[in-house]
Amino acid sequence: MLRSFIHRARQILFWDQARPLELFSGLNLLSWAYLLWAQPELVTRDSYAGFQALGAGIWAFVLLVIAVVQLAPVFWSFARGHDLRFVAMALASGAWLMIASNFITSGVSTTADTNYLLLSFTCMASGVWLAWISRD
Q1: What's the rounded Cα separation, in Å, for the pair 96 and 99?
Q2: pTM of the model
Q3: Which of 129, 104, 99 is closest to 116 using CA atoms?
Q4: 68 confidence band (pLDDT: 50, 70, 90)
Q5: Which residues contact 21 (CB under 8 A, 6 or more apart)?
Q6: Would you place residue 53 in the very low, low, confident or very high pLDDT band (cuts 50, 70, 90)?
């Protein structure tokens, strides 16, 4: 029983080089979606002002959809799974870039702008790798 669980956990966590980033990004996007849904007043703060145009609810929904698209191939097998993972990584990269640009343009000095920008670029590079391996 324990051995089976450990084997399954290793398959999920270390399927390939992009898998840990998919989990990290997808789970973080889920937390962002939950945060914006549960505390919509956050968009009134200076550092979150970029989210006001669409509103917290719409942003929460968009980030939830991207997170689900990114996490689905982690837990379930799909035909052309690498292609889906590439699309999910591209969407996640765009989401992280939007989040980073919000912090960059807010004028509030935080480490978030650099961290989310790095996460966007890392998702972008991993997406390119996923596209490369899916061309077979």
Answers
A1: 5
A2: 0.83
A3: 99
A4: very high
A5: 122, 123, 126
A6: confident
